[in-house]
Design a protein that fits this description.
Blueprint (H helix, E strand, L loop, with lengths): L4 E6 L11 H15 L3 E7 L5 E5 L2 E6 L6 H13 L4 H22 L6 E5 L15 E4 L4 H7 L5 H16 L2 E4 L2 H11 L3 E3 L23 E4 L8 H12 L7 E4 L4 H11 L6 E5 L3 H10 L2 E4 L8 H8 L4 E4 L14 E4 L4 H12 L14 H5 L2 H23 L1
Parallel strand pairs: 1-2, 1-5, 2-4, 5-6, 6-7, 7-8, 9-10, 9-12, 10-11, 12-13, 13-14
Antiparallel strand pairs: 3-4
Amino acid sequence: MQKRRIAFLTPEFTTEYANGGGLGNYLNRISKALRDQGHQPEIFVVSKETPGTFDFEGVLVHRVGYTERGLAIRVARRAAYLARFHAWNPLVSLLRGALALARGLRRREREVAFDFVQSADYLASGLFVRRHKRPHLVRCSCASELYAQVDEQDTTYRRWAARLEVASVRRGDIAYAPSQFVADHYRWTYGLDVRVVRPPSFIESQVATVPSAQVPDRYFVHFGQLRARKGTAWLAEALPLAWTQERELRLVCVGGANPQDIEGWGSAWGDRRSQVVWLGQLPKPELYAVLRRAEAAVLPSLVDNLPNTVIESLMMGIPVIGSAGASIDELVETGVTGELVPVGDSHALAETMVRFWRKQTPVCKGFRWESPIARQMRPECAVENLIAIADSHGRVIHRIAE
């Protein structure tokens, strides 16, 4: 395969946000997979750190600072001032970041030629990328209006951000999503032709020998972003139902959560709230040590996009109790690598947890994940599929011309 030079434009990356961020984690993996096969990926990331270029584990990273000047910035600031609406400030920040990424790319393209550029719909990171003979891919990493509805954050800012994110998808040459769930959403809601390309799957860091935090001898784990759309509130509601059948069932939660939410959930658990251990954010080696010891991972997202939490669990042979939808069903094979329950059904979720706790399920911890989608996500296949979709740009234009 011909070696390629690829530019990735992103509002987040591992160098800026070490222990979180699904998009940043994906870019860390795909850039390493490309590097290992002889390609030359370069990351352009908006950063509050001093702008500059450095090598990160064999991948060139360009930090760009937020742009202060530009017509879009002036218009947005003027609108915010006239409206006296401070919620517009994050929107101005979004535009500043997208413009900075486009300018950083243009500067670099004066020095080298990229075979293709990839941005993300998240925060409209490719909104200002100019048309060029090289293709511009847009990865649909989120469907923010869906997320906003579930998280009950359907604010003016979120609605405007969603419009700009969709505009950035339209401006690209090719759009794709990691999940069929999100691809279908863009197709049905906006009439956009969004294809599906699976991300690479591998554990990119060492696993700690033992967790540094104290955990129970037996437990389920719930990790990642602990919020409504990830099913945390649903899980909190199901736990008391499960405890009526299995009084010793315990849960370990790893990730950031709103303290008020934690207090609210805990107050509903009464004297059993001590059976839920909150560890907060952990470095990846520590997180993986906690995950590896769990009986199962409870990851019942209401909406999602092929979440890293589920992928990491399956790669480590940890069964997943997830939702029958929201892209979790694209990853989990019922009765083989986990179980799926109807979205929002607390009784079904509780019953499933009880069955796993009692080991009354055919799913055994320590399995080898070898489903068709697992094969698509092997690093060499993920790289091949990404390059193939970029190469299809010329053929698509040719068919349209005919």
